[in-house]
Amino acid sequence: TPLKVRTCLQYGTTSTTNTNNQQNPDNSDDYDSYDDPADSTDDGLVDKNTSTVVSCSRYATFCYALWTIDAVKNTTKVVVQGCWEVSDKKETCINNECISYKETKSGHFFCCCSGDNCNGNFSYATNPMLTDSANLATDGDYTPFAPYTSIWSSPTVYICFAMVGIILMLIIGFLTCRTTTKAVSELAPLAPSGPGYSSNLYNVDNLKLVSMIGQGKYGTVWKGIVNEQHVAVKIFTAQQRQYFLNEKDIYSIPLMESPALLSYFGCDERRTMDDRIEYLLVLSLAPLGCLQDWLTDNRMPFGVFCRMGKSVANGLAHLHTEIRKGDIIKPCVCHRDLNSRNILVKADLSCCICDLGFALKTFGPRYECRGEIALAETKSINEVGTLRYMAPEVLEGAVNL
C-alpha cells in the first residue's frame, strides 16, 4: 500500500522540506534573516493567489507556517509556508491546527501541524491549553490571539465576590444589631419586681459598688450604681447563704410591691479576688439611712412623725395581708425582726421596711421557713429578732399562728 503523501500550502520558498538545522520547530529563529517575499501585499497581507498547494516528500509529514504580527496596524504578514520534517519532538506538530504558543526573539511566530493544508489557517495563543482558538485566514485581516487571562480578571468573579461580601456584611450587621438590642434591653432602667415570681429580675453584671453604707451581723450593705441608677447592694458571705436565700425568696413572692417595702431588682453570686463566694441582693436605695440613726440626729414636726409611723404600719400590713389576684397568690409574711434599725427613711421622709432574712410565709396554721412547711401547733417557732421588740407570746414560745 503506497504511503499517503502530505499536502501543504507553500509560500515564500521553493523547498518542500526543512534543512537539517531546522529539524526542531524551536529553531524557528533561523528565519530571522529571511527576506520577505516580494509578492507580499503593501499592507503586509499575503495574496491568496501566491500560496500554492504542494505535495510533500515522504519524509515531510507535517506542514508549517512562519509569520509576523504588526501590533500597530493589527495585521499579520506571512513569511514562509511549506512542508516540514521533524526528527525529534514530534509531539509538537501532531495537532491538526497550526498554533504558535510563543514568540521568537526577532518577533516571528512559528507553528506546525499534521493535517493536509493545515498551515493555511494559523494562530497564536499564549497558553497551550487554549487550542480551540479562532483560525487565522491567510486572505484577510487577522486579529492576534488574545493573551490568556486568569479567572481573576473576569468581572463576573468580582461581582460574585462583591455579592458574597455584601451578604456577609448583612449577616454580621444583623447579629450585631441583635446583640446590641439585647444589650440595650439589659441596660434599661431597673424595674422593680413584677406580679409574677422571679428569682432574678435583672442582669447585674454591670453593677459597680461605690461605698459601704452599713454593716451588720448578717451582711454588709453597699451603695452601688447600675446603668447610672443608684441602688443598695446587700452582700452575704458563704456562711450567711441561708439568710440570703430566705430574703431573696421573700422578695421574689408575687404581689410584694409596696411603697413601704424596698423594691427588689435582682441577685447575683460571685467570687472575690481571694476565691471566696459572695451573694448579692440588689434593692432600691433609701438615701437617709435607718430610722434609728435618723431619729437620733434629727428633730421633726408631729405631722412628719405621723407620716413615718403610718408608712411603717402600711408596710407591715402589706406583709401580713394575703392577696389573691386570679391564680396569683401572695401569702402572709411575718417579718420577725421589726425594729428601728430595719426601717429605712426615704428621701420624702416616708419609711420602708427592710431586712427580711428572718421572715417566713404563713398559710393558716402552717408556715414555711427555709423551704420547709410545718404546723405551728406541732413545731414551735424559734425565737429570733431583737428582744425588746419581741411580742410577749413570742418570748414565751407559745405563739400559735
Describe the structure.
By secondary structure, this protein is an alpha+beta fold. The chain is built from five helices and 20 strands. The protein has helices spanning 155-186, 241-251, 291-297, 302-320, 392-395; strands spanning 7-10, 52-55, 62-70, 75-84, 98-100, 108-113, 122-124, 208-216, 219-226, 229-237, 264-271, 277-284, 323-325, 328-330, 332-334, 343-345, 351-353, 360-363, 366-369, 372-375.
Strand coverage percent: 25-35%
Major beta sheet summary: 5 strands, antiparallel
Strand-and-helix sequence, N→C?
EEEEEEEHEEEHEEHHEEEEEEEEH
Give the low-pLDDT segments.
Answer: 14-46, 130-148, 183-200
The rounded Rg comes to 51 Å
Strand line-up in the sheet with most strands: 8-9-10-12-11
The count of domains is 3
Shape descriptor: rod-shaped
CATH architecture field of the largest domain:
2-Layer Sandwich
- The H-level CATH homologous superfamily of the largest domain, spelled out, is Phosphorylase Kinase, domain 1
Mean pLDDT across all residues, rounded? Answer: 76
